[in-house]
Amino acid sequence: MTRILAVDDSPSMRQMVAFTLKSAGFDVAEAEDGAVALKMAQAEKFGLVLADVNMPNMDGLSLVRALRGLPDYKFTPLLMLTTESTPEKKMEGKAAGATGWLVKPFNPEQLVGTVQRVLG
Amino acid sequence: MNLDLERFHKTFFEESFENLDLAEAALLRLDVAVFDAETINTIFRAAHSIKGGAATFGFSAVAEFTHHAETLLDLMRSGKRQLAQPDIDLLLRAVDTLHGLLGAARDGSAANLAQVAEVQQALEAALSRPSVVPPAATIAAAPAASGWRIRFAPKPDLFRSGNDPLRIFRALAALGELRAEPVPQPLPGLSAADPETCYLAWTLELDGAATLAEVADCFAWVEDECDLAIEPRQPAVAEGMPPPTGVNVVALPVATVRAADTVPKTAEVASSIRVGTEKIDALINLVGELVITQAMLTQLAEALDPVQNEKLLNGLSQLDRNTRMLQEAVMATRMLPMEAVFSRFPRLVHDLASKLGKQVRLVTVGEQTELDKSVIEKISDPLNHLVRNSLDHGLENSESRVAAGKDAVGTITLKAAHQGGHIVIEVGDDGRGLDAARILAKAREKGVPCGETMSEAEIYQLIFAPGFSTAEQVTDVSGRGVGMDVVKRNIQALGGSVELASRPGRGATVTIRLPLTLAILDGMSVGVGEEIFILPLSSVIESLQPLPDQVKRVADAGTVVRVRNEYLPLVDLRDWFSLPGARRPPQESIVVIVEAEGRKVALQIDELVGQQQVVIKSLEANYRRVRGVSGATILGDGRVSLILDVAAVVRLFSQSIAA
Fold it and tell me: Which residue in chain B has the smallest CA separation from A77?
C-alpha cells in the first residue's frame, strides 16, 4: 500500500492531516520539518509527500528540491501545503519540483479528495 | 466526511501561544539597523503557522487578524519594507492582541474587539501597498458555460514534476462527461521513445455545467508545464454578460528562488513529546511510593543474616540504586530551563523602560539552568516584582546616570545558577543602590519597628517589612508598595530565602535561593517519644545539649535558651503536639536551633535520628491544613511522619515573645 508522508512543523496541522488521511484509509507517516522528512524519505519510499512551505531546519521548497533529485522520487507526487495563493508562490513551488499544492485552509474533504485524485 | 476537528484545538492553542512567545522574543531581538533574515523569518513563520491553523480549525477572527501582521512581516522579510521601530512596536501590539484573541477563542469568551479593531486598523494603515488580490477570485466570477473545449499540450517534462495527464482527465471526468482526442503529431518509434517523456497532446470536450474556475482548477498544478486553452463550447448567450473569455494560461515567470540560500545550518534539534503534567505528577507519586517501599525493604533486610542472604541483599542494594536513579530521572522530566521565566522579561523591560523614559539593557545569564516546573510557576511573580522594582526605583534616568559618570544605559541582570541542591537566582541592577538613611526615615514614618543602632545590612532588611515602600509616589510600575514583603513570603513558602546586597551609587542585587524541587526535601529526622518529625535541613543551624545554666524561664515569654549570647525561645515539641510521655528537662534533651525569616527558635526533642531525603506528601490534600506542619512523609517502616513548618513555628513563637 502507498504510504503518505505528511510534513509540517505545526503539530496541530500535521495531526489534522495525518488523522484525516488515516480516517480515509491511507497509511500516513509524519515529520516535523524538512530535514526529518528527507531522512525518512531516504529510508523508505513514500507514494506521496505533503509538505508545509515554512518550516525550520529545512523548508518545504528545499525538501521538494532535494526529494526531486532522488532517483526514487523522480515521478512521485510532491504537494505543497501553502497558505500563499499568489501565483508567484505557487510557481516557486513548481520551480522547486512540486507536483502541485493545496491551499490552506483546506477542510478534510478537500484534502482527502485531492489525495485520492493524486493517488488515483 | 464529517470529522470533528475540535480534538486538535488544544494542540493548536498550545502551539499558537508558543509561537506568540517565540514571535515576541524575536521581535524584541530585532535591531532596526541590522537586517536579520533568520529572526524575521522566525516571526513570519510563527504568524504564518497561527494563521494557517486558525483558518483550518475555524477561528476566522484569529486568521483574519493574523493575516495583516503576516503581510507586514512578509514585506519585511522579502526586503520590500525597511525595518522600522514603529513597525516592530506595532507587531508587538499585534502579538498582545493575538494573545487576547486566541485566549478568547480558547475559553469561548468575548474578545476585546475594540483593541482588535484598533490594532488591525493600525496594521492596515502601515501596509502601504494594497494586498494582492489572488487572481483565482476573478476567474471564479466568470460565467458558467454549457461545456468546454480544452486544448492541452503538456511539455515533454510533465512527468518530472510528479504530474500525470491521466490524473487531470479523471478530475475533469468528475465534472461532467469527458471525451479526450489525441492531437495527431509525429511520435518517435517505440524503441526510440523515452518512457519519462510526454509526447502527446489532447483536445478535450467536457459536457456539463462546470464553471471555468472548476475546469481551470484541474490544470492548476500544470499550468506552467503545458500549453493550455480553455474555451466555452457554445458562446455564452446571456445578454449584458462580458464576452466569453478564452483563458490562455501562460507560464508565469518563475520567481528567483532564494530560499535555498537561506536554509540554516541544521541545528541540533532535541525531539520532544507533549505530556500532561498530571501524568508526570502521577509518575512522581508512584516513584515516591516505590522509594518508600524500597526503604521499607532495606530496613527489613537489616535484620537478615548477611552471609545466608547475600544474593538477596545484593539484589536489594541494586534495587536501591536503581530506585534512586529512577527517581532522579523522573524528577528531571519536570525540570524546565529558567528560560521559561526569563523569556518574558525582555518584553516587560522594553515596555517599562519606555513608560518610565529610562534606557535599559537586560542581561540574562544561565537561562539553561533547570528548575522544577512547579517552582518555576511560582517564582515568576516574585521575579517580576523584583525586576519592576529595579527598573522603577533602582535605575536612574539617563541624565542622572551620565551626571554620575555612568553609562547612560542602565543594566538589569538576571542570573540563574545551580549551587548544591539549590538554584540561586539574582536580580541585579547598576543603579543608585539602596539609600540607608532614606529607608530608615521611611521605616520610622511607616511605623515599622527599627532599632537605634542598626547596621546597614539590617536597615536594608527593613524593605522586606510589611507595608513598606520607599517610592515617593505610588506608580503603576511597581505597584502600591505591598511588594517586597510579599516577595519574601512567597519565596519562603517555597522553602527558599532572599538576600539583599547594595553598594551606594553602584547598584543593588537581590539573591534568591530555592530548592530545586518541591517534591523532595532534605530532612533531618528527630524523635520525640514514639514520634518521628522531619525538620527541613535548610532551616537547621545546629543542635546541642544545653547546660542547666543556659536555660532560663522568663516571666512572660516561657522558656528561653541562651546560645552564643542570644536568647532563643524554647519550644518543646512534646508540649506543642500534646504527645504522651513525661516531660524531660531541657538539659536532658537535645535542642535543635532552626531559623526562618531571619529569626531563630530552639526546638526541644528527645533524639536526633538521622538525615534523609523524604518525599513530601500534602497533608492538606489528604487530610486538612495543620498549623505548624507543612506536609507529611512516609518513613521506611511505613509510619507517617510530619514535616515541621519551621517558618510557622518561628512566627508563632517570636510573636509570643514580642507580645
Answer: B162
Tell me which chain A residue has its CA closest to the CA of residue B274.
A11
φ, ψ of residue A7 to 5 degrees: the values are -120, 120
CA dihedral (B110, B114, B116, B119) in degrees, to 10, reads: -160
Smallest Cα–Cα separation from A10: which of B57, B277, B262? B57
Which residue do the cell numbers 475546469 mark? Answer: B215
Distance from CA of B62 to the nearest CA of A (A): 13
Distance CA B229, CA B149 (A): 8
Closest to B406 in 3D by CA, of B417, B414, B394, B421: B394
Contact A11 B11 (CB under 8 A): yes
Q: Give residue-wise pLDDT tens across range B92-108.
A: 999 999 999 999 988 88
B583-641 confidence digits (pLDDT tens) = 888 888 899 999 876 678 999 999 998 887 787 887 877 788 888 888 888 887 778 89
Band (A27; pLDDT cuts 50, 70, 90): very high
Domains of chain A: 3-119 (3.40.50.2300)
- How many other CB atoms are found less than 10 A from the CB of residue B657? 16
Residue to mutate among A8, A9, A10, A58, with most B CBs inside 10 A, is A10
Residues of B76-90 as b/e, b for ≥16 C-beta within 10 angstroms?
A: bbeeebebeeebbeb
Is the pLDDT at A69 greater than 80, yes or no? Answer: yes
Cα radius of gyration rounded to whole Å, chain B:
36
- Of the pLDDT bands very low, low, confident and very high (cuts 50, 70, 90), residue B659 is very low
Which residues in chain A touch residue B47, judged by CB atoms under 8 angstroms apart?
A: none
Indicate if ipTM > 0.85: no
